[in-house]
Every structure is written in structure tokens, then in C-alpha cells.
Amino acid sequence: MVTSRSRRRLSPEARRGELIDAAIRLLESGKPVTNWVQAVTAEADAAKGTFYVYFSSWEDMLVAVRDRVLSDYIDRFRRLAETTEPVDWWEAIDAECVRAIDLIGRPGGLHDAVFHGMSPTTEDGREMAEAIAAALRRGMDEGVFRSLDAHMVAMTLFAVVHAAGDAIAAGESREQWLEAVRDLTRRWLSP
Amino acid sequence: MVTSRSRRRLSPEARRGELIDAAIRLLESGKPVTNWVQAVTAEADAAKGTFYVYFSSWEDMLVAVRDRVLSDYIDRFRRLAETTEPVDWWEAIDAECVRAIDLIGRPGGLHDAVFHGMSPTTEDGREMAEAIAAALRRGMDEGVFRSLDAHMVAMTLFAVVHAAGDAIAAGESREQWLEAVRDLTRRWLSP
Amino acid sequence: MVTSRSRRRLSPEARRGELIDAAIRLLESGKPVTNWVQAVTAEADAAKGTFYVYFSSWEDMLVAVRDRVLSDYIDRFRRLAETTEPVDWWEAIDAECVRAIDLIGRPGGLHDAVFHGMSPTTEDGREMAEAIAAALRRGMDEGVFRSLDAHMVAMTLFAVVHAAGDAIAAGESREQWLEAVRDLTRRWLSP
Amino acid sequence: MVTSRSRRRLSPEARRGELIDAAIRLLESGKPVTNWVQAVTAEADAAKGTFYVYFSSWEDMLVAVRDRVLSDYIDRFRRLAETTEPVDWWEAIDAECVRAIDLIGRPGGLHDAVFHGMSPTTEDGREMAEAIAAALRRGMDEGVFRSLDAHMVAMTLFAVVHAAGDAIAAGESREQWLEAVRDLTRRWLSP
DNA sequence: TATGAATGAGACTTCATTCAT
DNA sequence: AATGAATGAAGTCTCATTCAT
Asked: Which site among D156, D158, D173, D188 would you substitute to test the C interface, given the most C Cβ atoms closer than 10 Å to its Cβ?
């Protein structure tokens, strides 16, 4: 298979983006990969050496992937925490849970690569937890949620959502798990 | 470093046990290890080749470690589910949660090595989940807990306890997390 | 599979013989074996260590196997060379060729283990070649065979027989090869 | 011994060639080698890992060596079989025998590595045997050789030549063996 | 004599990373 | 900026051989 790729000159931004995209694609595909650097560059139609022009190591790439995946979430929670519009907190929390469960439940190793070992000690972990906690705090302030330690609620919620996603990925019923999580949050967070 | 170790002849059982012990010790220590087989045999005061007399690969050892760690739990839950004595279900659930949190919260990679990727699809995962669910079911039958899908409650509880343990391992307050989990279970499972 | 074999005390002769038998059985079986010492002792229903009571190394065993297999041949050729009875040399050579071809043609790695690398430089090789040559020399002396360098004829014959055996082992027609060898010897050795 | 070799960047073709050359050199040298990959890369002034860029295993390399060594032969026989020029078959067969005997007789393990176990079942074996047989068939058609199964003649001839080469490598007289083979072919193949 | 648990040198292989072009 | 050939440290695993019992 001689895919004689000729030198493709791209802007650094674009090339870096293509590599991250390729990594995410592979991570999501769930195919077992051992030789990551080679697999990613092949997928991105770039040469192996090009990888190291943009990332200093494989760990570095993983950080980039995590950033990309999380920034979406974090942004949305920040907006929730900072908006001046009125927010339907129950609807918001349900929607975010579903969204997260579906991301995690998607078969493939993406969420694992992104979340595994992501404790509140990591930079990313803290940022994510804080964004969620900030939103929850507003819901508590407005009296919609019971007053609890928002940080701990955020972490716990994250764990629950994770479990649901895993179970769904393992073949259990999505509907039942969504309902179960909804039931749990209602019981737990209602004043 | 020639630690000219003399040949120690042990019964297969004993030697296998020593190797598992050594593995658990290292896993718990949290020291970063890359070359596990060599590290474990060194720790167990055995030769590298001896490892392969008892385990066909590192994965195989991990299974043995998991078995060892889980069997304790599973036994206790089975006893709860089968006893004819009256059980104080709230006390039981609290006690088990504390115990689990403390195991997981113990610094080091043991619980991670044992539990990571342990979904209800794995043999061990299913066995554990079932043992917990069976106990919960009795609590529900006796009307102490609300009637819910015991399997899902078990999995979720496991995730929550895991999160608590992780947080504690990361330095957060044990007391506050224990209290939070207690509060969650009360709210969630009370009829 | 706990074949709890209890200590079987055998005369050294008998035990050694059993081990050689087992080795030949395995060699003949053609099953791919990597761990020979272990395979042979298992087959002989003996402990691994017992092997080294009778053989100083695996090479040593191979020598014993070779001796066993060859001694038969050598004896027969010696008898041919030394008998005072009249010999039908054409019949004798045909019979020996068939016998050798059938040994070699028997599927399995025995003949390979025994003959591979057996050049006239090895002790065994020289002995075998000499025995054959001695018999041929008598056939020549009696005028039945053409006068040729008996040693070279022996070696060449050996090679031809080997090729025939291999071909048969590889699935070609035994009858045709036997006939071809017979034709070759007639043409080549007739005065 | 730190032979701080600097990085030599070669075209894949060139590097692969150098590795094969090195392997042939070692094979011919007859030195006992256990760790082939390491020995070959050292000989080729390359790093161990480089070997696996071009060959997936030592077996793979052996195939390449065989191809290299055999292609010469096969080509020559094919040409003989296909030429429209008149061919002096006796001269041709003598020349090829001498050539083959000299290759095999060259001390060292090359021919052994290449030919051992090369039965007519292997791809290469069949190809080689067929090329020889095709040439012989033409000699038979032209009435120079007696009519025989060309395939069997080819295999047998191969074996005889092999024996001669081995004997010469073991120190016997080249002249006598060449003469013996010549005598054999004359007797056997003349109409 | 017999056992089988223990050994460790070393073979094989992988893959993140480097660097000459 | 881009390439891809080259590297070698590091890991996994095998198996003939040893030796305490």
C-alpha cells in the first residue's frame, strides 16, 4: 500500500488540529492500538516525525485531547454559572447528565483516556470540578438544590454519571440508567 | 548488586502466595513501577523465572490479586444476603461503605489496578455486583430500603464509594466524605 | 491434571531406556515440541530432574537416540560384510534402501534429529558410512557391483534414499520413488 | 566496547540489502551464532531495532536470504528451459552440478540454512525443483537424456549434489566427487 | 535414586523518540 | 515545516540446567 503522500504544507494550527482529530478518532474507534504515535500520524496522513514537531511526547498529546474534550463541558458549565438569564436548574442538570453519560457510554477508549486518573488533583480535574461546582452553587443559592458542599456533589455526580456511562457501554439499558440517575439527583438534591 | 540469594525451596502454594503478597505490597506502595515482573520477584526474593512458573503473564497475576482482594468483600456481602439473623441494614450499609472507602482511599495503586476496567461484564465484576445487589435486595424486601433495581444501586454505590476514596486519597477530608456518602444513601434509599 | 505419580524405582538401565523410548516416541510423533526436556520426562512419566541423572545434557540424549536408531542398521550392514554365506547383493541393496526410505519417510522429526548434520566427520556418521561401504565393497569384490569408491557410493546412496524418504513424507508416491531408486542403483552400479 | 556508531541514513533498499549481505556473510563464516538478530545488525553496522524495521523475524530474513541465493539458480535453469538456441545438455548439466557443488561445498552454514528442510512442499522448493525439472524435460524431449520423471530426477540430483558438497566441505576430495557425480549422471541419464 | 521447585542468562520484540535530510 | 529511517533502552518470556530435599 504505497500511499505516496507528498509533503503537505499546512499552517501549524491546522496540522496540530489534524493530529488531535486523528487521535480522538482512534481513541473513539475502540480498536486496540499499541503503537500510538505511529497510528495517529498514519491516521492524520502525516509522517511520524511530524508528531514531535507539535507534541513533545505522547503524554503531551493526551493533555491536548483532554483539553479539547473537556473545554466544551467546562464552557457550558461556566456559562450556566455566570449567565444572568434565569435557569431551569433541574432541566439543566438532567441535560448535562444525559450529555455526559452519552459521551462516556460511547464505546471506545476516549473517555477512559481522558478521564482515567483524572482526580481533583490534576489541573484539568480541578478546573472541571470547579466549573460544575460553580454552577451547582448557583442552583443552591437560588434554593432549587439543597445546600451541600458543591465540590463534593460535583465529584460524586461525576462518578455516578461515569458508572452509568460504563454500564451502558457494557450493554445495559440506557433508558433505565438515565431514569436511575434522574431519580438519584431528585432525591439527593431536592431541598 | 549481587545479592547472592540462596535457593529457597517452598511449597508451590507458599511461593505463589509470597509472589501475590509481594505484588500487593508494591501495588499499595504507589511507587511507580514499569517492569512489574522484575519488581515483584525482587520484592518476593525470588528469581524472575520463578514468576512464570506460577503466572503465565502479568495479567494473570493481576487476576490473582483481584481475586484475593475481592473475595473478602464478596464473602461478607454473601453472608449478609444469606444470614437468618436479623440485620440492621442501615448500619450494615454504612459499615461497608466506610470499609470500602478506606480500602480505596489507602494511597497507592492497588485499588486502581484491581478495579480499573472492572465493569459488570467481567466475571469478577459481575460476581461482586451480584453479591452487593443480593444484600440490597434483602434490605428492600424487608422494607428498610426503597424498592429499586438492586443491580443498578449496587453499581452506583460502588462508583460513589470509589469517588470518595479517590478524593480522600487525594487529600480531601475523610470525615466530610464519609458524612456525604451517608447523607446520600439515606436520601436515596429511604422509602 | 494431577497425575500424582509416586516414586517409581527402576533399575538405571530400565529408566534410561524408558527415557530414550519416550524421546523417540515424541520425535516420531511430529508434534511440535519446544521444551524437550520437560516433554520427554513427562512422556516417560518421570520427573524433570531425573533426566539429568541419566543424561548430562540434551545433546547427550540425542546421541543416545542416534545410537539406538543407527545400531540396527550398522549391525545389519556389518553382518552383510562379514557373513560367509552367499549373498544376493541386488536383493540386499534393494531391501536396505526400502527399509531406510521407510524410516525416513515416516512422518515426524526422528530421522531429522538423527541424520541432520550427520556428515562423515561425525563419529556416528563415519561408522555408518563405513559399515555400508564395507558391504558394498564385498559386492564389488564379488563382481556383482561395478568397481567404484565404496565410501562415495555409500554417501551418495544415503543422500538419494534420504531424498526419496523426504519426498514420500511430503506426500509423493512411495511406489514411484522406490522404483526410481531401484532404477538408479541398477544403472549406476551394474558392471 | 562502545563503538559509538553514528547514524547512517540509507534508502530502505540499501539498508535491507546491507542486512541481507551481513546475514549471508555470517552464515557463510560458519562461526557458531546463537543470537542472530544481534549478530547480523552488529555485522551490518546497524542497531538491533533496525532489523525489525525490515524483517518481522529471523525466519523472515532467512526467506530473503534463500530468495537471494536461489533466484540465481532458478533464473539460469529457466533460461535453459526456454532458450531457442541449441543446448549441449551434457555440458549444461555438468556445469550446473559443479556450480551447485561448489556453492554447497563452500564451508559455512549458508547452504544449510538455505536448503535445510527445503522440501518440494515449500514454495521455494517447488519453484526450484520445477525449474530444474523443466530444463531436464527439454533434454529428454531432445533425446539426450533417457525418459524419466523429470521431477524425481531433479530432486534426486539435488540430493546427490548436496551430498557431494557436504563431503567436500568436510574435507574430501573435490575432484573425486565431481568425477563421481559426472559418472553417476552419465550412467543414470543416458538413453 | 528420584524429585520438581527454582534459577537466570539471554532470546525475541516493541515503540517512543531522535535526527539527518 | 516536514519527513521517515534509525535508534536502543526496556520489556516480555523461555527453557536447559541446578540443587535442596
From this structure: D156
